[in-house]
Amino acid sequence: MLRSAIERLYARYLLWQVRHLPRHVAVIQDGNRRFARNQGLDTAAGHELGADTTEQVLDWACELGVRHITLYTFSTENFRRDEDELRSLFALFQKKFTAILTDERVHRNHIRVQMIGDRSLLPDDLLATIEAAEAATLHYADYFINVALAYGGRNEIVHAARSILDGVKAGLIDPGIINPTTVETHLNRGAPIPPVDLIIRTGNDYRTSNFLPWLANGHESAVYFCAPYWPAFRKIDLLRAIRVYDQRMHLKKHG
Description:
By secondary structure, the protein is an alpha/beta fold.
């Protein structure tokens, strides 16, 4: 109880310090498996606990007014994991996307949900569920959740290049006027995603793992690495990350 009270006070103090709020926060949710191992749980339980943390973080983001969140949920490299883990992960993704259809928080806060990643790599039943969730939130525009699933940064840029080439061949794009905006419009086919202001990575690993290279690295986003595994991520960790972004913006403005 005492620790909880202290954390609430500290959260208020951190929020009081922040003057600049990021518009777009991208999160590398790392450490589910290591957390489970440390707690004597199986891997599937670690992913379930991580999914619970994700829901909490999305609530906090809405409460703070962060309009765009991108979640690195499953990379193209993750397909190398064993069949049992892949099965349990896909079942978890299906459950969470199905829940979006009736989640009153999504509809009350007008949250648009979309997947970014290589859809051709996903099972048909999971893809159908994702597309149903996207359709159910298509008309919302207050908050945006981008779920990076079957995602790889280099793969994303390759697909954008192919899409642009197709447009050139069809006579729809003049190659002489291709610019960064052209590339950005071909990175995904849903709602436009703004440049990343802040990347958060949990699990005490100091790398950004090929995550949103065009929208993050290309725009020199702030990066916050922290020790807690994703299931143990707290509101004060999110606020500390936002403080790092705030400090960076202060330096940019005042030198």
